[in-house]
Write a structure and sequence with these properties.
The complex is a heterodimer. By secondary structure, chain A is α/β, with parallel strands linked by helices. Chain A has one domain (9-148): Rossmann fold (3-Layer(aba) Sandwich), CATH 3.40.50.12280. Helices cover 39% and strands 15% of the residues of chain A. Chain A has helices at 20-29, 60-72, 84-88, 119-148, and strands spanning 9-14, 41-43, 51-55, 78-82, 110-112. Chain A has a five-stranded parallel β-sheet with strand order 2-1-3-4-5. By secondary structure, chain B is of the alpha+beta class. Chain B has a domain at 55-201 and 228-289: Cytochrome-c3 Hydrogenase, chain B. Helices cover 48% and strands 14% of the residues of chain B. Chain B has 13 helices and eight strands. Chain B has helices at 45-48, 57-62, 69-84, 90-118, 122-143, 163-189, 191-197, 205-210, 216-219, 250-274, 324-336, 344-350, 355-359; strands spanning 5-9, 21-27, 30-37, 152-153, 156-157, 290-299, 302-311, 318-322. In chain B, the strands form three sheets. A three-stranded antiparallel β-sheet of chain B has the order 1-2-3. A three-stranded antiparallel β-sheet of chain B has the order 6-7-8. A two-stranded antiparallel ribbon of chain B has the order 4-5. In chain B, helix 4 runs antiparallel to helix 5 (122-143). The mean pLDDT of chain B is 86. The chains are: A alpha/beta, B alpha+beta. Chains A and B meet through strand 1, helix 1 and helix 2 of A and helix 1 and helix 5 of B.
């Protein structure tokens, strides 16, 4: 993990999830997995967050919340969809109130599979999102330089 | 009356892992009224019963909620077995009881952690979850899953557990009990915990009964009501008494759950001692469910009811679930009246809200 240059702050939202992935996500923060040792901190405020972790599929009600939270996060930002439901709707994709995966609403960068996704794979997803985040930060810098010159 | 302010609480809130929204009407810092609104997690799961095969549906039923997943699977399977007239072998019944109690312990530990986080005691949150991981390891060893067990199926259980593993489970229970007792003492005796919970969100026994509270919320107000008293699964053959507390505040609800963890460890030991030998499932080739049934089970959060109706087709005609958090929302709104704004997260958490169950 020596390539981690930044400490990403994460924002978690359970869109239309069954809790399984949410528990595993919280388990990542607790002593056995303890992602805080890598500087990954869970925040409740979208304006402090770098990485948006969404579990569960989207429905009519949660769609607006996911969109709002994503819009409130400052650039650069990355989105990680966690669990089978967030990927495609999973076992609930036939249910009448489920639109499908998170990518129906906001752009997703990393897909973490599993029902429920295991903590190890969630951590891996966050690490991959971090690489994307760094790439975006560099891109922004380049664009600023072009504008300044 | 002074002007009131409306403060939205949720759906995305740091102390809540799940989306629930409350509109809090405040007079200064005091809550005058709380209006819940739900729908963020509604998937339409009950209708899926009409599209899925009744055997497959056990997996969907387990995903009603990821915290009490096993007990949902168990309730669904019990209902279908009742409709088909199947007699589940005793070994499967006992193993189901063991897993249901493990599910209860992990749910209560999870709740203890979250509530510690809600009153700002972060290290206690971490310790509760550390112990929970010890239990999740056993669950993974015996079922293969961490949160979704997937071990219950119509007619019995999916995979047997060998004698050596069961002995190891017994030994690990001792370790968990020792670790839990240390943390339980902090919950019981620590001054900061008491300051945030004693006398907060009090509900009298009459109110709890009149508003239809279930589970630990009802038992913390002095009612010895536990659905396991019906004697389903192996509970009729085990020795236990419902846990009851009298004061009806957040501290009492915490105490009920602490004592229930010790009780569940004891129930698991009793099951392991009496574990019968033999088959783990019965076959029902070609049979289709027909008729109506109502099943009641005790979840970590209280009583859950399943209604099933079938007409001999491979799909159920109707599947309905009444979950404990839904029953506890009315008592919650009652408890929030007159409390301080700062106490709202603690009170909301003491009913152990499971929004995913509630909305399905």
């Amino acid at each position: 993990m020596s390539f981690l240059k930044k400490s990403p702050w994460i924002l978690h939202y359970a869109a239309t999830s069954c809790n399984g992935c949410d528990i595993e996500l919280l388990a990542c923060l607790t002593p056995l997995y303890d992602v805080e040792r890598f500087g990954i901190v869970n925040t409740g405020n979208p304006k402090h967050a770098d990485i948006f972790l969404v579990t569960g599929s989207v429905n009519e009600e949660s769609r607006k919340v996911v969109e709002n939270l994503y819009a409130q996060m400052p650039d650069p930002k990355a989105v990680v969809a966690i669990g089978a439901c967030a990927l495609s709707g999973g076992i609930f994709r036939d249910a009448y109130n489920v639109y499908g995966g998170i990518d129906q609403v906001i752009p997703v960068d990393v897909y973490v599979p599993g029902c429920a996704a295991r903590p190890e794979s969630i951590i891996d997803g966050v690490v991959q999102a971090l690489a994307i985040l760094e790439e975006r930060a560099k891109e922004r810098k380049r664009q600023r330089k072009v504008v300044a010159s | 009356m002074a002007n009131t302010t409306i403060v939205p609480f949720g759906p995305q809130h740091p102390v809540l892992p799940e989306p629930i929204h409350l509109d809090l009407e405040l007079d200064d810092e005091r809550v005058v009224q709380a209006l819940p609104s739900i729908g963020y997690v509604h998937r339409g799961l009950e209708l899926l019963a009409e599209r899925h095969d009744f055997v497959e549906m056990a997996q969907v039923a387990e995903r009603i909620c990821g915290i009490c997943s096993f007990i949902h699977g168990q309730g669904y399977c019990q209902g279908i077995e009742h409709l088909l007239g199947l007699e589940v072998p005793p070994r499967a019944v006992y193993l189901r009881t063991v897993w249901a109690e493990m599910s209860r312990i992990q749910s209560h530990l999870l709740w203890l952690g979250l509530s510690a986080d809600a009153f700002g005691f972060e290290s206690l949150f971490q310790h509760s979850w550390r112990i929970r991981e010890m239990l999740v390891d056993i669950i993974e060893e015996t079922t293969g899953g961490r949160v979704i067990f997937g071990s219950c199926k119509v007619g019995g259980i999916r995979k047997d557990v060998d004698a050596e593993t069961l002995r190891r489970v017994g030994r690990r229970m001792n370790e968990i009990e020792a670790a839990f007792d240390e943390v339980a003492n902090i919950f019981r005796g620590d001054r900061t915990v008491k300051q945030r919970t004693v006398g907060v969100g009090v509900m009298s026994a009459e109110d709890a009964y009149a508003l239809g509270a279930v589970g630990p919320v009802l038992r913390a107000s002095g009612f010895a009501s536990d659905t396991r008293q019906l004697g389903y699964a192996a509970y009729g053959e085990l020795e236990w008494e419902p846990v009851v507390e009298q004061s009806g505040d957040c501290y009492a609800r915490c105490e009920v759950r602490l004592r229930e963890i010790s009780q569940s460890i004891d129930l698991i030991r009793q099951c392991l001692d009496r574990m019968p030998e033999g088959e783990i499932e019965v076959t029902f080739k070609g049979q289709r469910p027909k008729g109506e049934t109502m099943i009641r089970l005790e979840q970590p959060r209280g009583e859950v009811c399943y209604y099933m109706s079938a007409n001999g087709q491979k799909n159920l005609e109707r599947f309905r679930v009444r979950t404990p958090t839904f029953a506890n929302i009315a008592p919650l709104v009652h408890m929030l009246k007159g409390c301080d704004l700062a106490d709202v997260p603690v009170i909301v958490l003491t009913i152990d809200p499971c929004v995913s169950c509630t909305e399905r």
